[in-house]
Amino acid sequence: MDRLAVVEYLRTEHGLSGRMSEFLSFQDECEVTFQGPGYAATARIRRDDGSYSLNVVSNDLISILNDLHKGRHTGAEWSLVIDISAVISSIVAITGLILVFFLKLHRKLRLSLAVAGTLLILWMIRIAINQASAGL
């Protein structure tokens, strides 16, 4: 079975989008899965007669945004966008911390808030680890 021909046929005939994530071949059928943010399509093709069934699931905007936020089924381009956003956020945070040391006005308050924020994050991480180890 020509995998590329099958995938292109399904895309053109049914307008499927997303990346092909799986092409499984079994003795009597094949299964092709396409996935994208908030989207999944699965085609099951019978080998003996070429008939197939198609199941397409398109989710709402919240599911799409959730997948984009996690970088799920998005590809290398979106992973690069996430990495660039993380670098920019880190630069902004470090710049703000540096400014605290150079500006004398309210320095103690700002450093206290930074320490409190760090302790809060560490406490939340500890809670998450405890819940994960408890199997919740």
Could you please describe the fold and organization of this structure?
- It is built from four helices and four strands.
- It has helices at 3-14, 61-70, 76-102, 107-134, and strands spanning 19-25, 29-36, 39-46, 52-58.
- The radius of gyration is 24 Å and the shape is elongated.
- The chain has two domains: 3-66; 105-136.
- The chain has a four-stranded antiparallel β-sheet, with helices on one face.
- The longest helix is centred in the C-terminal third of the chain and has 28 residues, at 107-134.
- The chain is of the alpha+beta class and 136 residues long.
- The mean pLDDT is 91.
- A hairpin with a 3-residue loop joins strand 1 (19-25) and strand 2 (29-36).
Short description:
The chain is an alpha+beta fold and 136 residues long.
